[in-house]
Design brief:
The protein is of the alpha/beta class and 286 residues long. It has one domain. It is built from eleven helices and eight strands. The strands form two sheets. Strands 3, 4, 5, 6, 7 and 8 form a six-stranded mixed β-sheet that branches. Strands 1-2 form a two-stranded parallel sheet. A hairpin with a 7-residue loop joins strand 3 and strand 4. The two termini are 36 Å apart.
């Protein structure tokens, strides 16, 4: 890959997408520190994970739980400032943080990084560190490290409380291979008989259709369209059991492309742009 090709890829991931654009709050993001540790710590003082809230002493009413349905960053920041109008440089007490989930932590961190000119993207897949012998539905953020010439994986949801509760033995700011399994990798592992689809998912939702959905979500995330973990559209609404051979071959190709790194960038963009079945309803990003 030439320097020009790499620079074009990085420029694409520095530019916000329909979900990661901060809108009128961009200047507030640019006022934040630019190093990854400080941005993660800032984010953890602004957002509380819906499934971890009680660990922080917060009982969420239904109207607050609905905040996980907010898709774009600019709307998330608007809601955060509606709850507490203090500048986003100031950490909120847990009960005044925006309610989110792993997708929201990942998307917001990507947005924070983009505001500082750092190439970043949310990725969809599965965490291996939440339950033994289980691939848990999860999202994380990748950012480009220019000196090391690699995408660094960050789980910005994991603060000190969660790290201790999960007994993690790795750095969430630079996750080693094997801790987070990209959706395409999970698909390939199950196709090869190396993993059980029934051990891939979350709560009562698991199996081939769940894995397929995350592969498609990761395809969209690589095209800067970060949908909600439960959004359903296009090919996600077709059961794997009902797939034609062509559809199965297409899923195998998508899974492979999402794993090939920078080399597959052009093909991923072309696949997404030329296939309306992957496009989301316009109102989701409004």
């Amino acid at each position: 890959m030439t320097n020009g090709e790499l620079n074009a890829i990085l420029a694409y991931y520095i530019e916000p997408g329909v979900m990661s654009a901060a809108g009128e709050y961009l200047d507030q993001l640019r006022a934040l520190p630019s190093d990854v540790l400080s941005l993660v710590q800032t984010l953890q003082g602004l957002v509380i994970h819906i499934f971890w809230a009680e660990r922080y002493g917060v009982k969420l009413p239904e109207e607050r739980q609905a905040e996980v349905q907010i898709r774009p960053v600019r709307q998330k920041l608007a809601r955060l400032l509606e709850i507490d109008p203090a500048p986003i440089t100031i950490a909120r007490p847990p009960e005044r943080r925006l309610v989110g989930n792993c997708r929201d932590f990942s998307l917001l961190l990507a947005s924070f990084l983009k505001a500082h000119g750092i190439a970043a993207r949310a990725r969809c897949g599965f965490g291996t560190y939440f339950m033994p012998n289980h691939f848990e539905d999860h999202w994380m953020t990748e950012y480009w490290h220019p000196e090391e010439e690699r995408w660094v994986r960050v789980d910005s949801q994991i603060d000190e409380l969660q790290k201790q509760a999960l007994k993690l033995d790795f750095d969430p700011l630079d996750m080693p291979q094997g801790k987070f399994i990209l959706a395409g990798e999970a698909w390939q592992m199950c196709r090869a008989g190396q993993a059980d689809p029934d051990h891939v998912g979350i709560f009562q939702w698991h199996g081939w259709d769940f894995i397929k959905g995350n592969v498609l979500r990761d395809l969209l995330a690589l095209n800067k369209v970060e949908v909600l973990p439960w959004d359903s559209w296009g090919l996600t609404e077709v059961s794997v059991e009902a797939f034609s051979q062509d559809q199965m071959d297409q899923m195998d190709r998508i899974a492979a492309l999402t794993l090939q790194g920078n080399e597959s960038f052009g093909m991923l963009r072309k696949l997404y742009e030329e296939n309306p079945i992957f496009h989301i309803p316009a109102e989701w990003a409004a």
